[in-house]
Design a protein that fits this description.
- This protein has about 650 residues and is α/β, with parallel strands linked by helices.
- Among the domains are: about 160 residues, TIM Barrel (Alpha-Beta Barrel); about 60 residues, Oligo-1,6-glucosidase, domain 2, CATH 3.90.400.
- About 40% of the residues lie in helices and about 15% in strands.
- It is built from 24 helices and 24 strands.
- Helix 3 runs parallel beside helix 13.
- The longest helix has 26 residues.
- The chain is globular, with a radius of gyration of 25 Å.
- The two termini are about 40 Å apart.
- The relative contact order is 0.09.
- The model has no long low-confidence stretch (mean pLDDT about 95).
- The structure holds alpha-D-glucopyranose (GLC).
- The site of alpha-D-glucopyranose (GLC) has 10 residues, from loops.
C-alpha cells in the first residue's frame, strides 16, 4: 500500500509541531494507511486539482486532530479497538427533534434516563444547525453549519450534550446536509452578490437550455409544493438547481473548493463529539446530463474521500447514508467493489420499512418474502438502520417486478396501500394522510405516526381494535428489531402517539403534512409508560423488553445477513440469521388469526423463544402455532 508522499507528511508535521511524538506518530500512521483511499477518488473526481486539494485536506485533518479533545482521542482508540460497535445487538436507536422531544439541547440531556430505559445507545437529533428563518424543510435548509439553531441552544450546548450522551453510552448522530444549502447561506448570498468564486459553488444557468435538457430526465421530489428542479432567482439572474424546495440550493460538488468546505465542516462537527453523520440526500450530489442525477458513481468517490479524511483525524466517526433509492442501488452506499469498507457503514433499509406496512395491510407475507429475499447482501462490516417510521413520509417503493412475481400489479398494489393507509379502503383502521399526490405517476405517499397507521388513532373506545393496533405497532417493531442492524425508534412511536392534530398551525408547516407525525413528545403520556393497562405502557414496555432481550442475542449482530426462510402459508414471515454464536429465527404472524409453522424449520437444538423466555412445544402434527399479530424470536445452538 503506497504511503503518503513526504511533502504531505511535512504539511501535516508543520501543523502538529510541538505535539507529543507518540500522537504525531499516530497521525502519520493513519495518514499512510488511508492515503490511497483519499487520493484515488480525489484524482478521479478532480484530476489535476487533486494534489493541492489533498494537501489542504490533510492540513485540515491535522488541525482537527491537534485540537481534538482528550476524551475524543480516547473514543477514537476505543472505536478502533471495537470497529463493530454500531453492529452490536445492544445498539438501539432513537430519532427526535430536540425541541419536540425536550425543548432545547440542554433539556435533551435531562431525559437520558428515559432513553436509557428504552435501551437507546444511538440518538439521532434531527437537523439542529442554524437553518433559514421561516420554512426550512424541518431544518434541512442550513444557513450556517457552524452554529446551532438559536431556539435550541449554542454550539457549546451541543458539545456539552454530546459529552453527556457519551458518558451515558449514547452516540450522537446528526445530519450533514451536503446536497444543498439554504438560499440564505453565506455562499449563496455571495453568489447572488456576483462573486464568481461562490457562483461556482452552485449550478446556476443563464437560461432554460441546460435546465430543460437536465429536467427531461429528472423525477420531481416535491411535485406538490416545489415542482421542477430549477428555480429562477432574480438576484442571481439565473436558474438555480434546486432539487428539493426552491430555497434549497444544490451545491456543485464538481468544484474541489466545495469538497474542501464540507471536509472542514465534517471535522468541525466531529470535534464537537458527533459520532455518526447522516449524509442527507447523498444520492443526489453528483449530476450527469442524460441521467436522473441520482446514484452516480462519483457519489461513492466523494463519500470515500470524505471518509478517509475522517479516518485520519477522528476515526470514531462513521457515516450513515440517507439514500432512499431502489434496492439494487442501495447496497452500493455500504461499499461495493473498490469502495468496500470505505464509504458509509450504515444505511437506511427503506425496503424493509415499506414491506412491514405492506404486509400488515394485506395480512399476507408473499410479496414481502419475495422483495426482501431478492435484495443483494450487504457487506459484513456494515449495518442497516431498520425502522418502522421516520420523520419522512412513506413512498411505496415496491417494484413492478417484485409485485408481478407474486401475481400482483405494482401500480394497483401501491394504490391499495395509499388507500389503506389514508383510511379510504373499506375496513382499514389506518388514519394516515396523503403526501405529495403526483397526478402524472399516480403516486400518493403517506404521512402518519406508527399508531395512526396501525389503527390506534381510530380505535377510541373499541378495546379489541386498540389491542390489535398495539399488537401491530409492536409487531412492526419486532420485525425491525429482529432483522439485524440498528433499529431506530421514531420519537413518539414508543408511546403510541397518534400524531399532531394541530400540525398545520405552526408557521411554515401548513403545506407539509409530514409534521402530522412529528408531534411534540407528550410527557404526560410518557408517565404512563410503566402502566401495562395503558397503550403507552404496552408499547413502551414491549419495546424496552425487546431491546433488553435483543442485547443478549449475539445472532442479531449486524455482521451476518438476515434471510427469509421458505414460506409455509402466507401468514407468517420467517427470518433466519445464522451466526457462529447461535441461529436466530424470527417468526412474525401478520394476520389476525392463529397460524401454524413447521417446528422442524424453526427449532434447532437447544431452541428457546427469547421474548417470552419459553420452550416451544409443537402440536402432534409438528406445528408451532403463533397467536395473531405476534412475533417470536427463537434462538438455537449454532447450526
Ligand atoms: C432528506 C430528508 C427530508 C428532506 C430532504 C431534503 O430526504 O429526510 O426530510 O426533505 O432530505 O433535505
Amino acid at each position: 500500500m503506497p504511503s503518503a508522499p513526504p511533502e504531505i507528511h511535512e504539511a501535516a508535521g508543520r501543523v502538529l509541531d510541538g505535539m507529543d511524538p507518540l500522537r504525531r506518530r499516530t497521525f502519520a500512521l493513519r495518514l499512510d494507511r488511508w492515503w490511497t483511499d483519499l487520493i484515488d477518488p480525489l484524482t478521479l473526481l478532480y484530476g489535476d486539482a487533486a494534489g493541492a486539494l489533498a494537501n489542504t485536506l490533510v492540513a485540515a485533518a491535522a488541525t482537527a486532530f491537534r485540537d481534538r479533545e482528550e476524551d475524543l482521542h480516547e473514543l477514537d482508540e476505543r472505536r478502533l479497538l471495537a470497529p463493530d460497535w454500531f453492529q452490536q445487538p445492544s445498539v438501539i436507536g432513537y430519532a427526535a427533534y430536540a425541541d419536540r422531544f425536550a425543548g432545547s439541547l440542554a433539556q435533551v440531556g435531562d431525559h437520558l434516563s428515559y432513553l436509557t430505559e428504552l435501551g437507546v445507545h444511538y440518538l439521532h437529533l434531527m437537523p439542529l444547525l442554524r437553518a433559514r428563518e421561516g420554512d426550512n424543510d424541518g431544518g434541512y435548509a442550513v444557513a450556517d453549519y457552524r452554529a446551532v439553531d438559536t431556539r435550541l441552544g449554542t454550539i457549546d450546548d451541543l458539545r456539552l450534550l454530546a459529552g453527556r450522551l457519551r458518558g451515558a453510552g449514547i452516540s450522537l448522530v446528526i445530519d450533514l446536509v451536503l446536497n444543498h444549502v439554504a438560499r440564505e447561506h453565506a455562499w449563496a448570498r455571495a453568489a447572488r452578490a456576483g462573486d464568481p468564486k461562490y457562483r461556482n459553488y452552485f449550478r446556476i444557468y443563464p437560461d432554460r437550455t441546460e435546465p430543460d435538457a437536465y429536467e427531461s430526465f429528472l423525477p420531481e421530489v416535491f411535485p406538490d409544493f416545489a415542482p421542477g428542479s430549477f428555480t429562477w432567482d432574480d438576484e442571481a439572474q439565473g436558474w438555480v438547481w434546486t432539487t428539493f424546495n426552491s430555497y434549497q440550493w444544490d451545491v456543485n460538488w464538481a468544484n474541489p473548493e466545495v469538497f474542501a468546505e464540507y471536509a472542514e465542516i465534517v471535522l468541525f462537527l466531529a470535534n464537537l463529539g458527533v459520532e455518526v453523520l447522516r449524509l442527507d440526500a447523498i444520492a443526489f450530489v453528483w449530476k450527469r446530463l442524460g441521467t436522473d442525477c441520482q446514484n452516480q458513481p462519483e457519489v461513492h468517490e466523494i463519500t470515500q474521500a470524505l471518509r478517509a479524511v475522517v479516518r485520519i483525524a477522528c476515526p470514531a466517526v462513521v457515516f450513515k447514508a440517507e439514500a432512499i433509492v431502489a434496492p439494487n442501488q442501495l447496497v452500493q452506499y455500504l461499499g461495493q467493489g473498490t469502495h468496500h469498507g470505505k464509504v458509509s457503514d450504515i444505511a437506511y433499509h427503506n425496503s424493509l420499512m415499506v414491506q412491514v406496512w405492506s404486509t400488515l395491510a394485506t395480512g399476507d407475507v408473499t410479496l414481502t418474502a419475495r422483495a426482501l429475499g431478492s435484495l443483494p447482501p450487504k457487506p459484513s462490516t456494515a449495518a442497516w438502520v431498520t425502522y418502522a417510521r421516520c420523520h419522512d413520509d412513506i413512498g411505496w417503493a415496491i417494484s413492478d417486478e417484485d409485485a408481478a412475481a407474486v401475481g400482483l400489479s405494482g401500480p394497483a398494489h401501491r394504490n391499495f396501500l395509499s388507500d389503506w393507509y389514508a383510511g379510504r379502503y373499506p375496513g382499514s383502521p389506518a388514519r394516515g394522510v396523503v403526501f405529495q399526490y403526483n397526478p402524472q405517476t399516480g403516486d400518493r405517499r403517506i404521512s402518519g405516526t406508527a399508531a395512526a397507521l396501525a389503527g390506534l388513532a381510530a380505535a377510541d373506545d373499541d378495546a379489541a381494535a386498540a389491542d390489535r393496533a398495539v399488537a401491530r405497532i409492536l409487531l412492526a417493531h419486532l420485525i425491525v428489531f429482529g432483522w439485524g442492524g440498528i433499529p431506530v425508534i421514531w420519537s413518539g412511536d414508543e408511546l403510541g402517539e397518534r400524531g399532531d392534530p394541530q400540525w398545520a398551525d405552526e408557521p411554515g408547516h401548513a403545506g407539509d403534512n409530514r409534521w402530522v407525525h412529528r408531534p411534540r413528545l407528550d410527557w404526560s403520556r410518557a408517565e404512563q409508560r410503566h402502566d401495562p393497562s395503558t397503550a403507552p405502557g404496552r408499547v413502551f414496555g414491549g419495546l424496552a423488553h425487546a431491546a433488553r432481550v435483543r442485547a443478549g442475542i449475539q445472532a442479531l449482530h449486524a455482521a451476518v445477513e438476515a434471510q427469509v426462510l421458505p414460506l409455509h402459508g402466507s401468514g407468517i414471515l420467517p427470518v433466519i440469521r445464522r451466526h457462529p454464536m447461535g441461529t436466530h429465527v424470527g417468526l412474525y404472524n401478520v394476520t389476525t388469526h392463529w397460524r401454524p409453522y413447521p417446528a422442524h424449520e424453526a427449532l434447532g437444538s437447544g431452541a428457546r423463544e427469547m421474548l417470552h423466555d419459553a420452550q416451544l412445544v409443537p402440536d402432534p402434527q409438528g406445528l408451532l402455532w403463533l397467536p395473531p399479530l405476534t412475533g417470536w424470536w427463537i434462538l438455537s445452538d449454532p447450526s
